[in-house]
Amino acid sequence: MKAVVIVAACRTAIGAFGGSLRDLNGAQIGSVTMKEAVRRAGIPAEAIDDVRYGCCIEPVDTLNVARVAALLACIPDSVPVATAGRGTQGALPGGNRRPSSSRRRRTAS
After folding, report:
1. Structurally, how many domains does the chain consist of?
2. Could you tell me the pTM of the whole model?
3. Torsion angle, CA of 82/84/88/92, rounded to 10 degrees?
4. Other CB atoms closer than 10 Å to residue 107's CB: what's the count?
5. CATH number, domain at 60?
6. CA dihedral of 62, 66, 67, 69, whole degrees rounded to 10
């Protein structure tokens, strides 16, 4: 098994609804952060073995927004890319656990 190494990370800009980012789609914004992460790591895009990219709400016109962003960021199309959906509770750390109060059985009195 290969060692997993995270060489860089970069966060997208946070904007207001209808603000300066309104004309950019998720893939365009994602490609900017991917390019910057590669630049910060100081590696060529060809050295990337795998991309995992989180997205809260995937745009309906760009399913697997991470794949499109990676292509726009000039990451080779041979690199596996997956979008990690963070908009659902099940994708959050511990999101599959119910609060302890919901586990108790209620008895009729």
Report:
1. 1
2. 0.71
3. 150
4. 5
5. 3.40.47.10
6. 80
